[in-house]
Amino acid sequence: MAKVTIYTQMMCGYCSAAVDLLQKKGVAFDEIDVTYDRDERARMRERAGGRKSTPQIFIDDRHVGGCDDLYALDRAGKLDPLLAA
Length: 85
Hints:
This protein is of the alpha+beta class. The protein is about 45% helix and about 20% strand. The chain has a 4-stranded mixed beta sheet with strand order 2-1-3-4, with helices on both faces. The longest helix has 12 residues.
């Protein structure tokens, strides 16, 4: 199973939707809340190529993008193979 990391923040509907999808898929993931953590937010921004919005999702250190990107991968049938790697 792939290693999944998702950066989230409080009161973020897109974060909740992304976490929901991962949970429905039965995927174990590391969730890093960047709401009040400047260092983690900076690390997220660096890993995500400067993107500041949440969520930012990584599968095996591959930057997937945000919630819409995650759902687009799922609709295209490309998410499950990434998660199974």
